[in-house]
């Protein structure tokens, strides 16, 4: 049987558990296609799964990787509308399609959902197989590396700000950790929506990068009074929306930036899953805390079209070969990046 290179781990642990191995090339089922992977971007999901199960057990050994761009290499017998050679990316959430949430279009909370690259092998390999119904044609004006930098961050930021928080033109939004993938995309989506954007980050270089993406005001979160600085940009009123993906480390400060009737929209907890919340501040100021989980297929298609038009820009920190997959994990864990780390496979 023919084999391929894949980044695999057989147990959870530090970066050393990731191995480059020769594994059997997967065969597509009747409703699947096989993709020859050109590029796959890293996400905090890859780091979290490698460290240990996030929301239940995952199959081991496992190849992660949810952000893929490549060419269809083979199609299953029941697949229609796609053929070998088509340039594609895909929506990484595989849902049941039958529960009350799927029927209502709320697929991100399908209780039976699985994620390509978490519950089944993903794209940090030379080939991967995915359901044909999850495919999206690669935007023609973008390279494979640029496309790989978009799916998770764009649909997540769009779902948070537009679908869940209902950000409106003329409102003000605060986004912490501007160097992160979802944050750097959130800046662009918020500006596209007509909002004023305030962000925090940690270095002069990252502050300048955030301004280049469209941030109106930037603060350095290493300053003791950065929250007061951020609120001062609103004339002391506070922001309408705070977008938080960091978790316990930033929740308290994100809440402090909010105006009365403000909305905190959250998706992510890699800095900690528990937070000591002072309940009176929520009802006295009529704050809303909104959960947001990923994004939908149609939201991803819309974001990719905006990127194809040049309205949204992929934010790429660096490109590494598959042989440097451990270094890619280090960069994310050390927060040594602004935007996406993309692994070039082919």
Description:
- The protein has 346 residues and is α/β, with parallel strands linked by helices.
- The chain has 2 domains: 3-150 and 314-344, Quinone Oxidoreductase, Chain A, domain 1, CATH 3.90.180.10; 154-291, Medium-chain alcohol dehydrogenases, catalytic domain (Quinone Oxidoreductase, Chain A, domain 1), CATH 3.90.180.
- Helix content is 28%, strand content 26%.
- It is built from 11 helices and 17 strands.
- It has helices at 44-51, 100-103, 144-148, 151-164, 181-192, 204-213, 226-232, 248-257, 279-284, 297-308, 325-333; strands spanning 3-8, 19-24, 32-41, 67-75, 87-90, 93-94, 114-115, 127-131, 135-137, 172-175, 196-201, 217-220, 239-244, 258-266, 288-291, 316-321, 340-344.
- The strands form 4 sheets. Strands 3, 4, 5, 8, 9, 16 and 17 form a 7-stranded mixed sheet that branches. The chain has a 6-stranded parallel sheet with strand order 12-11-10-13-14-15, with helices on both faces. It has a two-stranded antiparallel ribbon with strand order 1-2.
- The longest helix is centred in the middle third of the chain and has 14 residues, at 151-164.
- The radius of gyration is 20 Å and the shape is globular.
- The two termini are 21 Å apart.
């Amino acid at each position: 049987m023919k084999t391929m290179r894949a980044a695999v781990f057989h147990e959870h642990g530090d970066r050393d558990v990731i191995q480059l191995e020769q594994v059997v090339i997967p065969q597509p089922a009747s409703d699947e296609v096989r993709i020859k992977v050109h590029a796959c971007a890293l996400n905090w999901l890859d780091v979290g799964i490698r460290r240990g199960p996030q929301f239940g057990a995952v199959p081991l050994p496992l190849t992660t990787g949810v952000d893929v761009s490549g060419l269809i290499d083979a199609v299953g017998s029941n697949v229609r509308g796609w053929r070998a050679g088509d340039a594609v990316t895909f929506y990484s959430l595989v849902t049941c399609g039958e529960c009350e949430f799927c029927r209502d279009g709320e697929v991100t909370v399908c209780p039976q959902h699985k994620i390509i690259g978490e519950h089944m092998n993903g794209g940090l390999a030379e080939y991967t197989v995915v359901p044909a119904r999850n495919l999206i044609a690669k935007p023609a004006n973008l390279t494979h590396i640029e496309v790989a930098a978009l799916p998770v961050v764009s649909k997540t930021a769009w779902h948070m700000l537009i679908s869940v928080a209902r950000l409106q033109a003329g409102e003000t939004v605060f986004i912490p950790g501007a160097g992160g993938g979802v944050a750097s995309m959130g800046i662009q989506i918020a500006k596209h929506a007509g909002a004023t954007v305030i962000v925090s980050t940690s270095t002069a270089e990252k502050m300048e990068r955030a301004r280049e993406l469209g941030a109106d005001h930037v603060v350095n979160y290493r300053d003791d009074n950065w929250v007061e600085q951020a609120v001062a940009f609103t004339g002391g009123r506070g922001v309408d929306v705070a977008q938080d993906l960091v978790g316990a480390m930033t929740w308290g400060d994100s809440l402090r930036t909010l105006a009365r009737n403000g909305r905190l929209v959250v998706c992510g907890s890699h800095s900690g899953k528990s937070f000591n919340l002072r309940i009176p501040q929520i009802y006295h100021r009529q704050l809303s805390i909104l959960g947001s989980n990923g994004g939908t297929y149609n939201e991803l298609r819309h974001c990719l079209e905006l990127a194809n038009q040049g309205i949204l820009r992929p934010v790429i920190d660096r490109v590494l070969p598959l042989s440097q997959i451990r270094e890619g994990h280090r960069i994310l864990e050390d927060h040594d990046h602004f935007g996406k780390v993309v692994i070039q496979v082919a």
